[in-house]
Amino acid sequence: MNQYGTAIDWSMIQNVAETDAREGMELLTWKMTFTVTLLGILPSVVLGYSKVQYPPIKGHLAQILGSVLASLVLAGVLLFLLYKGLASPLREHRELRFLLTPTNYIQAVNGYFKRKWASPVVVSPLGTDANKGVLWAKSSRRTVTVIIVGETARSMNFSLNGYSRQTNPLLANQQGLLNFTQVQSCGTATAVSVPCVFSALGRHQYSSAKAQGQEGLLDVFKHAGFDVRWRDNNSGCKGVCDRIQFEDLSKPAPGDPLCNTEECYDEKLLRDLPELIRSATKDLVIVLHQKGSHGPAYSKRYPKEFAKFAPVCETSELAKCSTESIVAAYDNTILYTDFIISKAISILEQSNTEDGVDTALMYFSDHGESLGEKNMYLHGAPYVISPDEQRHVPLMLWLSDSFQTRFRIDTRCLAARRDQEFSHDNVFHSALGMLAINTAVYNPKLDIFNACKHEQ
Ligand SMILES: [Zn+2]
């Protein structure tokens, strides 16, 4: 909490429960060890060895109860006298309770388990009526749709969105790239945003329990007859890919040029992708889940060639680094993501021209990141008080020409919507709309493509 300005609510406990060892290890620093030793272990040892004189239980109990009662009365009187001054800050800054130790983590742990154990998870089917609409009948060409789920990439550090540093040198020159500048995420942490964005619930209806109890977008694709795969270089798909093929690419193999000793770079997600596309027999949807810009060790997320901005913060202890060096390391992760998206598009361009496959790509990030603004770092702030940096995410589309023609997509119309306000709520319905899938769960009002389809 000291180092990163973190507030502890139930979703932060969920983050703790659902993370993996590697992610956790990055937070175990020497400073952390020192702090825990100095403020936790040493006082406990002193207490352990000190001799306590316990008075007889009867009188002692009365004494304790008396002092608790007196304290409560005193607190009540103070609250009454000062209520006017306290009421509005307490109501407007509900986040204060997430900062008050130890009630914050006691409440948070309680809240987490209450949600987790709420009811046995029975997954109800969704969109079982899904089928490929009339536009599909006119061509026998296969389709491949790649959905890249970014990690911790915030919109404002993309030069495509007006950032002063050139963090998108490749995508800036990408023909036909559609970039949306005003997109809000569903949550501020992976454990919320990823299940939410693939669910049909939308942010206001979303809860972890509801999302777990209902199939999502990838299941609807499956019902419509697609082969659906999830390739992961993050800490799993948070339940989203439970019923489809899952491939964990995050574990480094010795000598793998796309990995360091601890983890793999996102380029590994693209390995064998051309072959995978070529050998597929059905229409394919492939989700690539990036490690992206996950902090605090930003400088570990990209190979050396992408260290364009310098000097960079090389430690997880952000307090030891200047804001400039933290931002420089973060910007290098965006530069690397620029390369990843660009390379994925090249692969899809090639499949389109050489293998006759109708290809499309969608990219969005799960949430943003604080890099010291308002003295906040990382992400995961309770949504109501979360800063724009943690919620404002990039969204991009690329559609091969034959894909556009086949599904009658008017890209000029889409390009004109670039500065409109969208959110993760649009992803579910837009993905269905883009691929012309008919189902009762599709809501055209939330489909970015709906207003942008040619009549003929
Ligand atoms: Zn995330």
CATH fold-level label of the largest domain: Alkaline Phosphatase, subunit A
Q: What oligomeric state do the depicted chains represent?
A: single chain
Placed side by side, the strands forming the largest sheet appear as: 5-4-6-2-7-10-3-11
Average pLDDT number: 93
Largest sheet: 8 strands, mixed
Q: How do the helices and strands follow one another from N- to C-terminus?
A: HHHHHEEEHHHEEHEHEEEHEHHEHE
Question: CATH architecture of the largest domain, please?
Answer: 3-Layer(aba) Sandwich
Domain Phosphoethanolamine transferase N-terminal: 1-116
Domain Sulfatase N-terminal: 145-435
Pfam families: EptA_B_N (PF08019), Sulfatase (PF00884)
Membrane topology: Multi-pass membrane protein
Question: What is the topology?
Answer:
Elements: H1 10-18, H2 21-25, H3 30-49, H4 57-92, H5 103-116, E1 131-132, E2 143-150, E3 178-184, H6 190-197, H7 208-212, H8 217-223, E4 227-232, E5 245-248, H9 273-279, E6 284-289, H10 323-355, E7 358-365, E8 370-371, E9 377-378, H11 388-391, E10 392-399, H12 401-406, H13 411-416, E11 421-423, H14 425-434, E12 437-438
Parallel strand pairs: 2-6, 2-7, 3-11, 4-5, 4-6
Antiparallel strand pairs: 1-12, 3-10, 7-10, 8-9
Helix pairs in contact: 1-5, 9-10
Residues 151-152, 190, 366-367 line the site of zinc ion (ZN).
